[in-house]
UniProtKB/TrEMBL annotation, chain A:
Listed name of the protein: Xylose transport system permease protein XylH
Primary location: membrane
Membrane topology category: Multi-pass membrane protein
Pfam families, per the entry: BPD_transp_2
InterPro entries recorded: ABC_transp_permease
Top-level taxon in the UniProt lineage: Bacteria
Keywords: Cell inner membrane, Cell membrane, Membrane, Sugar transport, Transmembrane, Transmembrane helix, Transport
Location(s) in or outside the cell: Cell membrane
GO molecular function: transmembrane transporter activity
Source organism of the structure: Herbiconiux ginsengi
Statement: the UniProt record of this protein carries the keyword Signal: no
Transmembrane segments annotated in the record for this chain: 32-50, 62-81, 88-108, 114-134, 141-164, 184-206, 237-257, 269-286, 293-311, 317-336
TrEMBL record, chain B:
Domain ABC transporter residue range list: 9-250
InterPro entries assigned: AAA+_ATPase (IPR003593), ABC_carbohydrate_import_ATPase (IPR050107), ABC_transporter-like_ATP-bd (IPR003439), ABC_transporter-like_CS (IPR017871), P-loop_NTPase (IPR027417)
Keywords for this protein: ATP-binding, Nucleotide-binding
Name of the protein this chain belongs to: Monosaccharide ABC transporter ATP-binding protein, CUT2 family
GO molecular function: ATP binding; ATP hydrolysis activity
Entries under Pfam families matching the protein: ABC_tran
SUPFAM superfamilies from the UniProt entry: P-loop containing nucleoside triphosphate hydrolases
């Protein structure tokens, strides 16, 4: 009982030297795999598609725009996944939000700020309903939000046909709303600015606030979080609403940038958002991940989807490419997480220990 | 016992029944500051019902609960916690993929700044958590950013106990803290119990390992079928008496050997 300190003091001294060894910290962070993936695919397409114009400003703006739109949805969805829940309803929220803007402005003649607020309201309400159902029933959010994705898709499509007779309605934004939601500078959409704002806020919340700790705890050990007094229902509800708002914002931006609202657009995000989160190092069962990782995952997806176009190959290959990346990402994340949980964590010096034949 | 101090937590003739089943009958037990009260008994003897009453999870069907001599019905787990009764469960309730510092302050984070800039004071959280964990004799933990998943069972227990003490626990209820641990790990936990006692906490130590109990206990209560079968203070009973009692009152030689063999392993 009393002889242990001697051995432990020795370990501590050796390990504190290793604690100053920063790269260990980096390679065991949740976003390390995502960084490798993003750099890897960029280098790959720079080599393969560079001669075809992948490195031009226009192509760069192309993948940055694709990344920003995807990240705007994937960041809140990924943070929700860290808390242990899914949101598959984001696809329909994008369509419902964009058709709300178009129907409200063009068909009903309502003022633009009002319809934009209504569109964001559709997203917030969807998130609220998802969150309340998941909290009250403790059913898997995968099923609950899959159901709400279908319900909302049907409602948006049905209402659009009743009000306008079609599912696609054109819309034009006037100032100042066009600057906020529909402008483009040097080929870069205003979406990029929104993405940066949302990304910074999400990073701040997750990494530096109490809410961030509560999110990790809710996804990492729900029972432990509840015992520690974490308001886990409030955490989930807030994140479901944030997820709905992120998707609704993308719907508004799409309506503004493409001058039309379409009730069925956005279904691709249903699986793209969780794929991006997982490529970005978010653990599928929750409890682990980072906003930096999710953004890097979105960059990977954006580079692949635009890069393939510049290779001259048909985009038919995109799904196979993304699927392959996903499997690699899941394997890499698993390895990184296990490494982070190796005895002694990131500050141990495994090399020094093995040398001594321990 | 003539000038006996007032117990910091006391159950008086407490009974608890679920439907027609009496899980606990007429149990009287006092927990004193700076003492370790060992709660012994076989599986199903009522130990877990007793600690659930102590920690406010169950409300007794009869009898009284007193804190510092004042009758205080523990209406909820939160209520009991707010009055300094901390329960550390076997699984300890830590978040494995979160750091030591964040786990230490989970649910009670230190913050600085105001409004949207209100943030966790990670520097202080790191310093305080590390200092308190290490003061429990856990010297292998030297980085508050280390994930709790990297800690051993005994170290997690130390973290949980350190956290409870930091947040003002007066009574520490440890539910079978040593039963899942090896000999070395168990000795680490026993040392933690010693630290808690030396800092004036009343410790309730639930175990069915007589060696662990005898090594650290000041008072002992044996439960058999929901009743207090025996209660004594340190030195009043021999080791063999204790082992007999724990075997359910039966004096059976091979059972005795089995128990001692188990305790020694």
């Amino acid at each position: 009982m009393t002889d242990t300190p001697i051995a432990h003091v020795n370990t501590a001294r050796r390990s504190s030297l290793a604690g100053a060894f920063v790269p260990t910290k980096i390679y065991r962070s949740p976003q390390f795999g995502a960084l490798i993936a993003a750099v890897g695919v960029y280098v790959f397409f720079a080599v393969v598609a560079g001669p075809n114009g992948f490195l031009t400003p226009a192509a760069t703006a192309g993948w940055v725009n694709a990344t920003a739109e995807l990240a705007l949805i994937a960041i809140p969805v990924g943070v929700l996944m860290i808390s242990g829940e899914f949101d598959l309803s984001v696809g329909s929220v994008v369509g419902a939000s964009s058709i709300t803007v178009a129907l409200g402005s063009t068909v009903l003649g309502l003022p633009l700020p009002l319809v934009i607020i209504a569109a964001l309201g559709v997203g917030a309400l969807t998130g609220l309903v998802n969150g309340l159902i998941v909290n009250a029933t403790r059913l898997p959010s995968f099923i609950v939000t899959l159901a709400s994705n279908f319900i909302l898709l049907g409602l948006a499509l049905g209402l659009s046909r009743v009000l306008a007779g079609v599912s696609t309605v054109s819309v034009t934004f006037d100032e100042p709303w066009s600057t906020l939601f529909a402008s483009t500078f040097f080929d870069l959409n205003v979406t990029v600015v929104w993405c940066l704002v949302v990304g910074l806020v999400a990073y701040w919340v997750l990494a530096h606030t109490r809410m961030g700790s509560w999110i990790y705890a809710t996804g990492g050990n729900l029972d432990g979080a509840i015992k520690a007094g974490v308001p886990t229902n409030r955490v989930r509800l807030t994140l479901f609403i944030a997820s709905g708002l992120g998707a609704a914002l993308v719907g508004v931006l799409q309506a503004g940038l493409y001058h039309s609202g379409n009730a069925v657009q956005g279904q691709g995000f249903v699986f793209q958002a969780p794929i991006v989160a997982v490529i970005g190092g978010v653990l599928l069962v929750g409890g682990y991940g980072s906003v930096q990782g999710i953004v890097l995952g979105a960059i990977t997806y954006g580079v692949v989807s635009i890069g393939l176009f510049y290779t001259g190959w048909t985009s038919d290959w995109l799904s196979a490419f993304i699927g392959g990346l996903l499997i690699i990402a899941v394997l890499a994340n698993d390895a990184i997480r296990k490494s982070a949980l190796k005895s002694g964590g990131r500050t141990r010096a495994p090399r020094a220990r093995t040398k001594e034949g321990l | 016992m003539s000038t006996a101090p007032i117990p910091v937590l006391e159950l008086e003739h407490v009974g608890k029944s679920f439907g027609g089943t009496h899980a606990l009958t007429d149990a009287t037990i006092g927990v004193f500051a700076g003492e370790v009260h060992c709660l012994l008994g076989d599986n199903g003897a009522g130990k877990s019902t007793l600690i659930k009453v102590m920690s406010g999870i169950h409300q007794p069907t009869s009898g009284r609960v007193l804190i510092d001599g004042v009758e205080t019905p523990l209406v909820s787990a939160r209520f009991a916690q707010d009055r300094g009764i901390a329960t550390v469960h076997q699984d300890v309730g830590m978040i494995p993929l979160m750091s030591v510092a964040r786990n230490f302050f989970l649910g009670r984070e230190l913050t600085r700044g105001r409004g949207p800039f209100r943030r966790i004071d990670m520097k202080r959280a790191r310093e305080i958590s590390l200092e308190h964990v290490r003061s429990m004799g856990i010297r292998r933990v030297h980085d508050a950013d280390q994930m709790v998943g990297t800690l051993s069972g005994g170290e997690r227990q130390a973290l949980a106990i350190a956290r409870a003490m930091y947040f003002g626990a007066k009574v520490l209820i440890l539910d079978e803290p040593t039963s899942a641990l090896g000999v070395k790990e168990a000795s680490i936990v026993l040392k933690q119990i010693e630290v808690a006692r030396s800092r004036g906490l009343g410790v309730v130590f639930i175990t069915h390992n007589a060696s662990h109990a005898l090594a650290i206990g000041d008072r002992f209560t044996v439960l058999i079928q929901g009743r207090v079968a025996a209660a004594w203070t340190r030195g009043e009973r021999s080791r063999n008496d204790v082992l007999d009692l724990m075997a359910g009152g039966e004096v059976v030689d091979d059972l005795f050997e089995k128990v001692t063999g188990e305790a020694a392993s």
